[in-house]
Structures are given as C-alpha cells and as structure tokens.
Design goal:
Blueprint: H1 4-14, E1 26-29, E2 34-37, E3 59-61, E4 64-66, H2 71-92
Antiparallel strand pairs: 1-2, 3-4
Length: 103
C-alpha cells in the first residue's frame, strides 16, 4: 500500500463517519520499510510495530526494505483471498482487483 491515509479516508467516507484519520496520521519509516501511525491528535509520538512483528524476510534495497515472496506462496494467498477481495470490491466499489479469480 502506498497511501494508507487515503485508504482510511475512503473507508470513513464509505461508512459515513467523520474524518478522524487522514494522511497526516501515517508516516513511511524507511528503516522499517512500512508506514507507522500517529495518534488522531497528531501530537503524539509516531508508533510502529515492534521489531519482532511484520515480515522478517525483508531485504534492503537502496535503504528501502522490500518483501520477497515465492511465486507459489503468492499464488496460494491469491487463490485463498480472491473471492473475499472480489466481494469487498463488489460491495464497496473500491479495492484491489489486480487479478481475476479462477474457478
């Protein structure tokens, strides 16, 4: 995900909620390789998952952490989640339909 703040805005709008979480609540931390979160008041210290959480098979590429996953693992996950993603997309009109579900 490249913009979790924008996604959170879309979810809040979809659910007819007041906007409390925006782009200002997320910051990409290069050393960690993912976005970390600030409190809703945006004054609190940024919080990240602990070092023991997340992908432990990441590799550094020009200072940015990237994930590596085998083709077989990706295919297995794609197959499992495909119909859930499709249902979410059909219900909300947004989501990530980057692949077609196969029967």
């Amino acid at each position: 995900m490249t913009d979790p703040g924008a996604e959170m805005i879309r979810v809040q709008q979809l659910l007819n909620l007041p906007l409390k979480v925006t782009r200002a609540n997320f910051e990409f931390v290069k050393e960690r390789g993912f976005y970390c979160v600030r409190g809703i008041d945006r004054k609190k210290k940024i919080r990240c998952l602990s070092r023991t959480k997340g992908n432990t098979r990441a590799v550094a590429n020009d200072g940015i952490v990237i994930s590596e996953m085998s083709t077989k693992s990706k295919s297995t996950l794609d197959s499992f989640f495909c119909y859930f993603v499709k249902d979410l997309y059909d219900l909300t009109g947004f989501g990530h339909m980057w692949y077609k579900c196969s029967l």
